[in-house]
Amino acid sequence: AQSVTQPDIHITVSEGASLELRCNYSYGATPYLFWYVQSPGQGLQLLLKYFSGDTLVQGIKGFEAEFKRSQSSFNLRKPSVHWSDAAEYFCAVGARGGGNKLTFGTGTQLKVEL
Amino acid sequence: DAGVIQSPRHEVTEMGQEVTLRCKPISGHDYLFWYRQTMMRGLELLIYFNNNVPIDDSGMPEDRFSAKMPNASFSTLKIQPSEPRDSAVYFCASSLGAGLAAGELFFGEGSRLTVL
Fold first, then answer.
1. Would an 8 Å CB–CB cutoff place A40 in contact with chain B?
2. Cα–Cα distance for residue pair A85/A50, rounded to 1 Å
3. How confident is the model at residue A40 (pLDDT cuts 50, 70, 90)?
4. Does A44 touch chain B if contact means CB atoms closer than 8 Å?
């Protein structure tokens, strides 16, 4: 079964600084990988996804993520954080051929200091 | 376009009472998911449906939980009897197409349940 680890529970960055949120997955083959964002009191919104091809994936709101098979990682990055990016971020993995089930990480809470 | 609609947004009840959470998926979506979110366990998939048929309910914690999807535009998650450990935010999500490559999950705003 697949699993996801987000090692950082909380991260604080200054507005304008760069951001990297870590995600490691466990799966026997190349998985489907996702990043979702959850603002307070809201549901989750898809930021970006990786299925195949180019390992650097661009998403909404200026986010990108890079799939590194050798490291089983799919880290989320943004070159310059805005105060509105403060939210909780979830990495998720899905199995190819495994139906529509997604396994989510425990999330990383991002705080942005002005 | 309307997104996934969940009700109630907040529910406070006493232990032993029946709780019913409701979800209206996005029109045309053929997959519907129920997730539970807690601080301790994060986001857990409880059950999901395809074309109103339950496909995988292995995440349903116990017999006190049941879910139905009588038609393509409505689903319920029922807890009877409720217990304090059921306190969580319950999310409904829908998607279109077979397999994760077909599309993303669209989440509702969640139903926050507190069982006293």
1. no
2. 21
3. confident
4. yes
